[in-house]
Amino acid sequence: MKSLWSDSDARKYKGPLAKRVYTSRLLGANPELVLHGGGNTSVKISEKDFFGDSVDVLYVKGSGWDLGTIEAAGFAPVRMNALLKMAKLGTLGDAEMVKQQRAAMLDPGAPNPSIEAILHAVIPQKFVDHTHANAIVALTNHNDGRKTIEDLYGDRVAIIPYVMPGFDLAKAVVEALSKVDPYKLEGLILMNHGIFTMHDDARKSYELMIELVTKAEILLSSRLGKSFSFPKAKAKEDLLGLSLIRKQVSALRGVPVIASLDQADDAVGFASRKDVAKLATRGPLTPDHTIRTKRVPAVIGADSGKSLAKFADEYEAYFEKYNKGETMLPPDPRWAVWQGHGVISFGATEAEAGVLRDIVTHTWHTIQQTEAAFEGGWKALPAGKLFEIEYWELEQAKLKKSGHAPGGAVHTHQGKVAIVTGSAAGIGFACAASLAHSGAKVIGIDLSPEIEEQMAKIGGIGIVANLTNEEKVKEAVEGVVRQFGGLDILVSNAGIFTAGAYLENLEQSNWDKSIAVNLTSHQILLKHAIPFLKNGIDGAIVLVGSRNVNAPGAGAASYSCAKAGLTQLCRVAALELAPFGVRCNIIHPDAVFDTKLWTPENLKRSAERYGMTVEEYKTRNLLKTEITSRDVGNMVSAMASPLFGKTTGAQVPVDGGNDRVI
């Protein structure tokens, strides 16, 4: 492990707090040390309070901040005297500790101090760094872990047996430091947990972390030998199986989840190990991870339903064995080993799934290294100790306050995966934006290269594809399932308005193009999306038709007939998909003028043709209201939601009321 310290960069950070920010970011930049909010750092500073009195303050990483991106505002300033007084108490509950730490802050607007604030305070050195370095955990999580640490570091570090984080751990550190000269220590090794380093100089504290962890890496590497490598295998592709697993896990969790499947050769190699069921379920990399990952993953075999039911039963038994009145979390796995296929991470959002994937990847890498390096292999904490972390008092307080499991859906479409075609502009983009605003992960497909930039605006993904090309459609749909685990919502909007012509003058190419784009492309999309929608969560299809279906105009045969065919396609799909709980409805918008098709000049000409002003023309419906793309998008989002959960095969006008239709 290399030090990332740069003299030129460090000079930009003036003062001890700024230096604390700099070295914290260096730690956070290395995933072998810190992952997603893990670890914490601090600095002790004497400064003036509001009244001008000199006070000793601990600036410690605040809750919710990540070391990799932390700013000065991310450190909570807590009075040292209060923290040291707390350290002398006999007992202190976590909730009360958090309350008292907050009461002792100089700045009430700062984030809550780290749960380890008291521990940082009792270490006398000015700078304190804490990480959950993979190599350190590998050396502690086996039968001879303590001896391994003693032999490697000698009296350079104090070894702390595993203690629940928070007040109990702080007390254990106080006891350990009372037996030595703390200024002669370079670090603390917390068994099954991580490492602290400390020094009065910011650079030295940081580089002690690098040095001590490097020693662990070298030892681990020597124990593994040059011939060690992670097993590798090629994945078996089963996208329908993946979408079914996602549906089953969503049912256990009670909200839709994103399923992130890792099919890298080493992930598949791990999932293909003959001993993977025993190896993967021995426990997490560090106890802190159980809040995100739970104690163990699910191991999914040929029958995913049976495997996940087994996980749920075992989780409930685990809860019943160890709970002391806590509220049980949903019995869903947060990650799974899919034998022969890879490793899946589940999150209520794409971001949560991504965080889990990072943690899980480091977990199965480190477990395999420890298994190969030490006799007896990987050994995590007992289930009872891990339960204490998973059902931590502070986490339970959040659960009881919110009334539902952490990470549960907040928005209507949270965790759902949606495809919207023809979404580079106009109605299609409005549909995509409304779905994204309601929490869906939206994938837009359009012939226009602008689709990529447009989808990025709403946190979605744009795919450039010709929807009349069946191979490209199949590739796009399968790519969505491969990346997110399934498909729940399909908005088939792509279309063109062909030039008007009376039947006797209608060019065949005009007719053929309209049928290809406005009808056949939708049929192709349904063909390849339906198998995954059947495994979707509250599966819904919304087709975008036209007022012309029920009120056609002369000279619009190619467009009107294609949209009428699309309406019939919707009705057939509704009949076929109802047994699978998938709804299919169609909207018929009219007079939507805020699209690229309608330039100011076009609007003015059309209004003049009817003897109207532009504003009168835009509101020439029964309700005298203007119809916007956003109105249509919001209707589509609603029709894909539980609000329309009992409706299928319906035709819904979005036209302000048209007397010809009515």
Describe this structure in words.
The chain is of the alpha/beta class and 662 residues long. It has four domains: 218 residues, Class II aldolase/adducin N-terminal domain (L-fuculose-1-phosphate Aldolase, 3-Layer(aba) Sandwich); 164 residues, L-fuculose-1-phosphate Aldolase (3-Layer(aba) Sandwich); 203 residues, NAD(P)-binding Rossmann-like Domain (Rossmann fold); 33 residues. It contains 25 helices and 18 strands. The chain starts with 6 loop residues before the first helix and ends in an 8-residue tail after the last strand. About 1% of the residues have low confidence.
Sum this structure up briefly.
The protein is α/β, with parallel strands linked by helices and about 650 residues long. Helices cover about 45% and strands about 15% of the residues. It folds into four domains: about 220 residues, L-fuculose-1-phosphate Aldolase (3-Layer(aba) Sandwich), CATH 3.40.225; about 160 residues, L-fuculose-1-phosphate Aldolase; about 200 residues, 3-Layer(aba) Sandwich (Rossmann fold), CATH 3.40.50; about 35 residues.
Strand numbers in spatial order across the main sheet: 3-2-1-4-7-6-5
Low-confidence spans: 402-409
Query: How many structural domains in the coordinates?
Result: 4
The Cα radius of gyration reads 30 Å
CATH topology of the largest domain: L-fuculose-1-phosphate Aldolase
Give the class-level CATH name of the largest domain.
Alpha Beta
Beta-strand content estimate: 5-15%
> What is the helical fraction, as a range of percent?
40-55%
> Could you say which structural class the secondary elements and strand pairing correspond to?
alpha/beta
Query: Distance between termini?
Result: 73 Å
**Gross morphology:** elongated
Give the overall average pLDDT.
94
Counted beta strands: 18
- How would a crystallographer describe the biggest sheet? 7 strands, mixed
Report the CATH architecture of the largest domain.
3-Layer(aba) Sandwich
Oligomer: single chain
Under CATH, the homologous superfamily of the largest domain reads Class II aldolase/adducin N-terminal domain
Count of DSSP H/I helices: 25
